[in-house]
Specification:
Blueprint (H helix, E strand, L loop, with lengths): L1 H4 L20 H16 L3 E6 L5 H11 L5 E7 L5 H11 L9 H17 L3 E7 L6 H11 L9 E7 L2 H6 L5 H4 L2 E7 L4 H14 L7 E2 L3 H9 L3 H17 L4 E2 L1 H25 L6 H35 L1
Parallel strand pairs: 1-4, 1-5, 2-3, 3-4, 6-7
């Protein structure tokens, strides 16, 4: 839709982390510095926390793209509520070891042997765990035990822990004192500033092939910052919808009012979803209200789709005529 309309090569505000869109903000520079310092220590844990959508995963995507595969064997795990034994099996699976039917003692011996072979080959195993705040304390303690393995006085295993702010509270638990002592670098990733928000938006657009179409009024950028708080994922969601709105309205200029309108639509959609969820949990006597809420949401969605279809047909006809 708006890709062809604005002559972009790819989606500029996709939510899936892609290192080519990495934006080197002051916060990300500091976080990268902590990652590099932690890796240079060749042992222990590196902790990066941040709000949802702050760019923690993108940060590691960037690091991952720059690591020399001749020196590292990487494993990435996105956790949910799993047990300590399941975590060990996920680590083993990520390293290519079959672990389904192994007891814990055998699994640990296999992991230790793998680390030893990697060390002999001049490589270090790097484990990245995302959403680490979901792990139980006992699983974190299991990771510490793995980090204690040494080969000729060197640690063949290192771990990067990515989590939401509450993970720092978890680490303060007295039961994790030994884990705390293994943290060699730690950083909390904050939001972008107002000026960086503009630079971020323009960077992603240019990376996607933007050549000034659409143009952005200067007042549009403070509005984007105001409605997103400088959180990259929120910026992506808002700006993607803004470009769609510009396409539907057949405009090549993004104004402050358009940003405010789209931000309002996003809030309304979220509020409608919450209302429907609340109504669904109410007593059966409120069935009519639940139906009304769903119908309202469906009507809005259909209206939006109708506009998309109409604009797509108009653009297709215009391209054929040209």
């Amino acid at each position: 839709m708006y890709l062809e309309y604005y002559k972009l090569r790819t989606m500029p505000f996709q939510l899936t982390p892609d290192s080519q869109f990495f934006f080197d903000s002051q916060e990300h520079k500091r976080a990268i510095a902590h990652l590099i310092y932690g890796l240079s220590q060749e042992e222990g844990f590196i902790v990066i926390t941040g709000e949802i959508g702050a760019g923690k995963t993108m940060l590691v995507e960037r690091l991952w793209s720059q690591l020399d595969e001749r020196n590292f064997i990487g494993v990435r795990i996105a956790t949910t509520q799993i047990s300590n034994d399941d975590l060990l099996k996920m680590v083993a699976d990520g390293l290519g070891l079959r672990a389904e039917a192994l007891d814990k003692a055998t699994l640990l011996r296999r992991l230790e042997k793998f680390f030893g072979d990697a060390h002999a080959a001049g490589k270090r195993c790097l484990l990245v765990i995302d959403e680490v705040q979901n792990l139980p304390l006992v699983a974190l303690e299991e990771l510490r035990m793995l980090s204690n393995i040494t080969m000729a006085g060197r640690a063949p295993f290192q771990c990067i822990l990515l989590g939401q702010p509450q993970f720092r509270e978890m680490l303060s638990d007295s039961r994790l004192e030994q884990v705390q002592q293994r943290v060699l670098a730690s950083y909390h990733l904050g939001p972008l500033s107002s000026g960086e928000t503009r630079a971020y938006v323009e960077h992603r657009l240019r990376t996607a092939g933007w050549e000034g179409d659409p143009s952005f009024e200067d007042e549009a950028f403070p509005a984007i910052y105001h409605h997103t708080g400088g959180i990259p994922r929120r910026i992506n969601i808002l700006c993607s919808r803004v470009l769609l709105s510009g396409y539907l309205d057949d405009t090549h200029c993004i104004a402050e009012g358009m940003v405010k309108d789209v931000a309002g639509e996003l809030r309304s959609d979220l509020a409608a979803g919450r209302q429907i969820s609340a109504k669904q949990s109410a007593e059966s006597g409120h069935l009519d209200e639940r139906v009304d809420g769903r119908l309202l949401s469906i009507e809005r969605t259909l209206a939006r789709h109708e506009r998309v279809i109409k604009r797509t047909l108009e653009l297709t006809i215009r391209l054929v005529q040209e």
